[in-house]
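F.,

This is the one I mentioned.
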């Protein structure tokens, strides 16, 4: 028996969202519809020939909502999930963890690929602007709204039916295109600003390296030496081990009560970014006196194991509980003599030049390589006078603080751009971008045209 054909009134009743279920108010000439009313049915397509292009979740760059890494696979090794047919102008929406925003627009080149069944393929019907539907699927309203339907623990997912029944605010056709044009115009300006800010961020490490290089080659304080009548020849070559004690002897813990509370600093509590200790723990001496490195206030600690060494994990030890501190044996403890100030050493071991040389001298198993103590002891430095060291430290503290401030400002600006984009998308699908023409016919008429089309 053939399926009964619905009248246009019945189709409208099924498509329209009742007033009590409409999420928010939209312009009078828009209407709320179930999303399946504006979508063609999904189609299947199995790989054929010798090789095919495959889009799975990993192919999506979810920071840009683009397909960047489609896979080329032999048909003989096609995954069973490779069966979603694509069309030019479709939008892929991941059913798995939708909050991760693995969403992408399919252009003419990508429509030759086959997608995973892990995606819902949103194929807009005629009289629905493809890019309008894409921006709708990317909008916070849609992503967060669909996320509420997730089920499952290991790979929380939504169903295709959740998308099909999702309420969609449908504007008249001309308004759809105006919304797309306005979004893309605003986003282009924001992306231009983002690119400039990202350029400043990308140069942060190079600027920091240049500042430290100038500091330890004497260029940073050249004017200071002239002003103070100090000769350029005042810088003397020395081995780090001659002006510092590398891993000095531990205290005699037997002199103290084993219940004495002391400070303990895990590697994780040393900041890669600021070189500060973010937290001191308190432990009993009996818990740490064996198997841990001992240090005292004003010592410099430097991580000697990858990847911590490469990230520049180092810090100056501050006030300690009962003046006794311990930490992992993966720290080198560097104790300054009267010839060198600890803050000078601290900046030295955080410099990219020092870390690069340390890395080239590492030994041990891959992934667990360590900087040898002999490297630390034999490392040659150009050592200025103590007053010039103090000037270098002062200048470095100020310059590097400014760099951190620049980086922080850039990161906040990038976050602001992301917030602005979300706001634009939220307003777009509320009819609040100033593009709607209230004199245009209601989108109910458009919906009737859409519903009179075949569904596939």
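My design for it:
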């Amino acid at each position: 028996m053939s399926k009964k054909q619905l009248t246009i009134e019945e189709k409208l009743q099924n498509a329209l969202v009742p007033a009590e279920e409409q999420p928010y108010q939209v312009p009078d000439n828009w209407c709320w519809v179930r999303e399946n009313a504006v979508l063609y049915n999904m189609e299947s397509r199995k790989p054929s020939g010798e090789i095919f292009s495959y889009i799975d979740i990993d192919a999506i760059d979810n920071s840009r909502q683009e397909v960047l890494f489609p896979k080329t696979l032999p048909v003989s090794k096609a995954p069973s999930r490779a069966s979603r047919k694509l069309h030019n102008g479709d939008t892929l929406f991941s059913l798995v963890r939708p909050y991760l925003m693995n969403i992408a627009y399919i252009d003419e080149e990508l429509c030759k690929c086959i997608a995973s069944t892990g995606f819902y393929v949103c194929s807009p019907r005629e009289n629905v602007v493809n890019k309008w539907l894409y921006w709708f699927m990317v909008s916070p309203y849609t992503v967060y709204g669909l996320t509420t339907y997730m089920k499952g623990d290991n790979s929380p997912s939504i169903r295709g039916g959740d998308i099909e029944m999702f309420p969609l605010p449908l504007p008249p056709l001309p308004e759809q295109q105006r919304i797309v044009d306005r979004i893309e115009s605003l986003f282009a300006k924001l992306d231009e600003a983002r690119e400039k800010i990202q350029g400043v961020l990308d140069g942060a490490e190079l600027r920091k390296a240049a500042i430290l290089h100038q500091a330890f080659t004497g260029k940073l304080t050249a004017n200071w030496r002239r002003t103070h009548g100090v000769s350029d020849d005042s810088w003397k070559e020395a081995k780090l081990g001659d002006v510092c004690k590398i891993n000095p002897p531990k205290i005699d813990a037997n002199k103290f009560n084993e219940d004495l509370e002391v400070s303990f600093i895990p590697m994780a509590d040393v900041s890669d970014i600021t070189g500060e200790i973010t937290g001191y723990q308190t432990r009993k001496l009996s818990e740490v006196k064996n198997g841990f490195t001992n240090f005292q206030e004003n010592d410099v600690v430097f991580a000697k194991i990858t990847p911590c060494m490469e990230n520049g994990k180092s810090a100056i030890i501050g006030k300690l509980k009962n003046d006794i501190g311990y930490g992992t044996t993966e720290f080198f403890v560097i104790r300054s003599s009267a010839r060198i100030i600890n803050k000078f050493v601290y900046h030295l071991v955080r410099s990219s030049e020092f870390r690069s040389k340390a890395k080239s001298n590492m030994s041990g198993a891959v992934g667990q390589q360590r900087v040898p103590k002999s490297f630390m002891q034999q490392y040659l430095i150009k050592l200025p006078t103590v007053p010039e060291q103090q000037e270098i430290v002062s200048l470095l503290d100020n310059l590097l603080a400014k760099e951190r401030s620049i980086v922080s400002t850039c990161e906040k600006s990038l976050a602001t751009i992301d917030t602005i984009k979300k706001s634009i998308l939220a307003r777009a699908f509320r009819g609040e971008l100033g593009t709607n023409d209230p004199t245009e016919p209601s989108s109910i008429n458009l919906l009737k045209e859409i519903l009179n089309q075949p569904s596939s």
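The longest strand covers residues 331-336.

Talk soon.
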